[in-house]
Design goal:
homodimer, seven-stranded parallel beta sheet, 15 strands, DNA-binding
DNA sequence: TCGTTTTTGATCGCTTTTGAAAGAATTGCA
DNA sequence: TGCAATTCTTTCAAAAGCGATCAAAAACGA
């Protein structure tokens, strides 16, 4: 697993610990001491530091991974992302819905980020977003960007919280492209964090059309915070693995459903 | 790995270090000393320079590669080399003014960006900023971040425009660290863009203390858009090339002037 | 070539990191 | 519940690393 003869830099060592905990879920102080060949005092200090950064949680005897939804983790770990090609296809299909001079909203999430990457040449558009990553992708060139202010939620790299409404209340977009952690026929859209869902709901109010981008892996998943019911959503873009009943029922409810 | 018998030119040596860090992710001062056959003092200076350029990040005992997702610093890269070390020193001196649990504001600019890089471990702080770069630097870990929303001004990578006031009106910071394009005794602070100066002026109103970070090259320069007079500014941090009359006059007007 | 500027290396306090030790707290087990 | 074993926190001192300073060396320009 871990091996190193010459001393390891402290931040490097902490990174080893962090990624190990993330992967394995738990780790014991004693194991780390043996692997990293430093004293338990140092290990404890590292764990304390990492806990302070919110990277893990200390427990008696070691540390455990912080409880974050596994769905959400996948968002920013592009490598381990199975739905890679589905997401790209969904993003491309969404791109075709964008008209000239549209003002559009993108929220956080890997699918919408892929859509953002397709907008580098589109200087005709106005993009409103609460996603730091989307803004960073288009920082050099692309649409006019209005970034929603607010508190940065690190795990999703989006702006959330009460301050977001200050800006959101003042803009209106033609089309809002939204991601979600899960969706199901009964509960509509759900996501892990209430702050996040609050922003999404607010945007849905301001948007001419709300277009949900969600690969089939999200179908039937229910997360903690409810975003909205299907009545606010105008279209769903998913992939062809979406169980038939979803497409059927949603179309019956008046949504446009497209499968990439 | 790295070996060389005859002396290596400084830029060449730095390039070796840079590419090594990029490839390996981390490097120790001691290893570099042995490989490059120069003193640790020289290695440290190289690392300091490279850090100033944003090519790597120094840590105790060596340096590590910068995160992938940070924004490129193309705009600042080349021409400002002369002021590199001044800016770094100014940023460090500014850092010492930050107290525990402070809420601070950083605006755009290369000096404040350097200050931002020093805040990675400071989870006690609250950072308010309109700088996309500063936010991107601290996206992984660091202070609580409140990003000012608004329109992205590409050239400076900052948020400007009417929407900024929506958020700015609702926050108050203990200390605001501001950059400027130019300052002179008659006109005070000036910058190139009125949108930019509007935000700066707004922040100056909300801040407990306004601290100007400006290398001596800015002294006497006057730009298009007036930001504010000296009455709004509480302190100036510059470098020791600042002409004496600036320090003298400003101190007489009640400012704290520090030369890094 | 000479004088100036830049780079380099050595030294000295100072800070950070590390490991060990002692006492307090937690856990497992009877 | 009480005891033993383990783990944790606190404290302290040693070690490693650091920034600042200064003088020597090298590079540069006239």
């Amino acid at each position: 697993m871990i091996r190193d003869h010459n001393p390891v830099l402290a931040p490097q060592r902490r990174e080893i610990i962090r990624s190990f905990v993330q992967k394995e879920g738990v780790v014991r102080v004693e194991d780390l001491r043996k692997s990293l060949k430093v004293s338990v005092a140092t290990i404890r200090r590292d764990l304390e530091t990492l806990e302070g950064m919110g990277k893990l949680r200390r427990v008696h005897g070691g540390a455990v991974a912080v409880e974050k939804n596994r769905l959400e983790e996948a968002v920013f770990d592009d490598k381990t992302n199975r739905a890679e090609s589905e997401k790209s296809r969904i993003a491309k299909m969404a791109y075709r819905l964008i008209d000239r001079n549209d003002s559009i909203y993108l929220d956080g999430g890997s699918t919408t980020l892929r859509l953002a990457r397709l907008l580098r040449e589109r200087t005709d558009l106005t993009l409103v977003t609460n996603s730091l990553r989307a803004a960073a992708e288009l920082a050099e060139s692309g649409p006019r960007i209005l970034l929603i202010g607010g508190e940065l939620r690190r795990i999703s790299q989006t702006m959330v919280g009460p301050l977001t409404s200050a800006v959101l209340g003042q803009v209106r977009v033609d089309k809002a492209f939204m991601g979600t952690m899960g969706f199901c026929l009964e509960n509509g859209l759900t996501t892990t964090d209430p702050n996040e869902s609050y922003v999404k709901a607010l945007v849905a109010e301001q948007a001419g059309r709300v277009i949900l981008l969600a690969d089939s892996g999200k179908a039937g998943k229910v997360s903690f915070a409810r975003v909205s019911g299907w009545d606010k959503v105008d279209a769903l873009i998913s992939d062809d693995n979406l169980p038939g009943r979803f497409a059927k029922t949603l179309r019956k409810r008046g949504l446009k459903v497209r499968l990439a």
